[in-house]
Amino acid sequence: MSAEPAFLLHRRPYRETSALVDLLTLHHGRIRAVAQGGQRPTSKSRQRLQPFTPLLVTWRGERELKRLTLMESRGTTALLAGEGLLCGLYANEIATRLLPLELPASDAFAFYTALLEALPAPAARALALRRYEWSLLEALDATPRFCTPDGGALDPQAQYRFDADSRAFIPAAKGLDGRTLRYIDQHDWQEPTLANALKAVMRAALAPLLGARALRSRELMLDLAKRRQR
């Protein structure tokens, strides 16, 4: 096979000196593979297999667990720190948790690449994260439906909450107003006043897919926020 662009999502030890890695690839979505020698301190594969580093990889194997046969750097590692680093870890964690193995997700790959470029700039992070989250929902055919469960239009003056079963919005005493949800549906997400509502919609849509197990990256983000308040 020809070399494919990829990013490391997760790495853990495997047997004595190898590593078990999850990669986000351009054409094959998330793959899981063994990187032989990936745990040796002096191995080139360990040095290259770093988070947020653009890679070129090839692999062998017809089953779910592949074997990496080539791994090269194809660019500069995104230098992330603080909140930007935690956002990057969050992006890796949700892709690992959500994407089935080998489900094509080329749009998610593109928005992940754009996200890494945006994370060093605080003002650009939130919107880039929302677009990346949306691309994952699209890959899973799980994007919200900006209507009522029966397909009716949202009342701009009414309040709504997300219903996971129908992926639509149902009237609620307290929630997001129909006017805001209509703006979100138009994908005109540059408006700063939409930021909190957009985050709430994404979190609600992702929650049933992620399940009850807490996200480690989110816990770290909360810890960082608490420390800043002291």
UniProtKB/TrEMBL annotation:
It comes from the Bacteria. The gene is recO. Belongs to the RecO family. Keywords: DNA damage, DNA recombination, DNA repair. PANTHER family: DNA REPAIR PROTEIN RECO. The keyword DNA damage applies. Residues 4-72 form the DNA replication/recombination mediator RecO N-terminal domain. It comes from Vreelandella gomseomensis. Involved in DNA repair and RecF pathway recombination. This is DNA repair protein RecO. The keyword DNA damage applies.
